[in-house]
Amino acid sequence: MENFLDNIGIVYEGCKLGNHIRGDSTADSEAGLVPSRMSSPVSMRAALRTVRDTCVQLGKALASSYSEARDKDEAQKIDAFVVYMVDPFETPVALWELCSAFWFLFQAYGQGAKARADYSPNPDLVLQIVPMKYIASFDAPVVLEPWTLINLAREVYDRCPPNQMSEDKTPLSIYSAPSIQLEEALPRSIQFKLTAEPPSDLLRENSYMHLGYAISLDGAWISAAWSDNCGKHQTVVSYCVGSRAFSEIAREIWQTTIEIIQTRRVTWRVCIAKAGVMEREELEGKSARPFHRAHANICFTAWVSLASSPTQLNLFTTLIAVDTSPALTLTPTITSVSTCNPSANPASSTPVSTPQPGVSPDQHSLTPAATPSDLISDPSADPDARLIDITDETWGIVLSHRLHNSHSAVEYRPALISGLLVKRGDSSATTSPSQSSDLSHGPIVIGINILWVGAIGGTRAGSSPFNSPATSDGVSPGGMGMQGSTERSSNSMSWTSTAQSRATAENLLKEVLNQFRGLGLLARLKGMRGSKHGAVPWHVAAALRAVRGMRRCM
């Protein structure tokens, strides 16, 4: 355990994430190591009860020690207390019990010495569960790969709250500071116009907020993940369905989305992505029956009505169904042997010209040979040279036909427009140790189906963020007639076989494919399992992992 703490501290500070200092020695702990003592072999339930009692004592000790050091003005600047809890059990149910024990630790820490009015609040508590295989093994010494320690250090950093307020002019309510984020691109153009209520942040007009959600197979859990287009503001929440209707949970998810984005009074593009098929009842909300666990594929909510409900914001909402395992597969061509070895096929070899008479070289003299430095140039000296990852090459495909969006075999419900996100993928020879469990060979295909697009305007006049090249006036994905309106309005886009609507839908799909490509790369850089080498966007992969983890543990 000491080697693990030393190694994670070295990696944490080596990644320039900050200081990673072990705790002080006390009567019940030594250099930050808090044992859970058991006199004799006990059952799993008794062991977990002992762990809970140890967590309660640790919470009280942390609160009292920090309060005493603060009163003596000896407390150093501490942003958070990170509790590494080793999981010696091999069952997923133990994760629930360990999290419950940490909750008792958190309550004991909060009920301890209260923060005085003239002092800042006590540091936050952060939980990181570490599997036993990362610490010790009965079969062989444990030597963790560098990528494993790096991903763990970044995960701990992402869990810790930031030590200072955001420098953004209009910060969102998600209080986070990620270790990795994509570059925030400047807008290509700024739409200047006379309006009574201009946006609060002109450079962030037409910002994206991506919402991904997934439902467990038994219908007992629903997980939702939020992220902006660069991954600066991200969070994940899981909901227990129980006896509640799905429409109630969907309304809570929508209200959370509004609370996140309402601090920035700009035009928002909200993309709601479902991992899997979004049924008609889930899309239109025609039924109000309660959500039962036996109906895993039937959801009863009203995303359309929620997205069309009155609000003070300008919203362009898009409903998307993401198919992480589509029926379409792409197989790369295999290079023939004759192409790789021309000498194997004499008929395909290039004919050699007849030697011409000339002066033969002197056999006794030495012919100067080219040095390796003359044959191989230094790539770093070339100003036009770039280091690229060919496995990250991605293509966006806009399909001319619309894919089926339903589990029903007798009713055809096509999407508004369909597309594919294709990634080159990886091979076993180029796979890093951290990605060996998420290996996907060959081209990876992800299906993107846009089902519905709606727009609702607040007190400001709505404007279209998607300008169709087929017309100079521009077509809003939420319908036409919003450019000159100053009252709150709501419109939705339905499919009509016209060149204008097709061009608008294609522009929208291209924007979504571009955003999903960046969020997929972010999931790969964060080391998230289930992203299929970065083909699945972060918010969809995070929702799937959360709902599968809840189903395993509960």
Written description of the protein model:
- With 554 residues, the chain is of the alpha/beta class.
- The chain folds into two domains: 158 residues, no CATH class; 272 residues, Nucleotidyltransferase, domain 5.
- 27% of the residues lie in helices and 16% in strands.
- The strands form two sheets. Strands 3, 4, 5, 6, 7, 8, 9, 10 and 11 form a nine-stranded mixed beta sheet that branches. Strands 1-2 form a two-stranded parallel sheet.
- A hairpin with a 5-residue loop joins strand 4 and strand 5.
- The longest helix is centred in the N-terminal third of the chain and has 28 residues.
- The chain is globular, with a radius of gyration of 29 Å.
- It starts with a helix and ends with a helix.
- About 8% of the residues have low confidence.
Low-pLDDT ranges: 286-290, 292-301, 459-489
- Main beta sheet: 9 strands, mixed
CATH level-1 class of the largest domain: Alpha Beta
Based on the coordinates given, report the CATH architecture of the largest domain.
2-Layer Sandwich
Helix-strand blueprint:
Elements: H1 2-14, H2 44-71, E1 80-87, H3 93-110, E2 124-131, H4 146-159, E3 207-215, E4 221-228, E5 234-240, H5 246-261, E6 267-275, H6 280-284, H7 303-307, E7 314-323, H8 337-340, H9 372-375, E8 394-398, E9 417-423, E10 444-456, E11 490-493, H10 499-525, H11 538-553
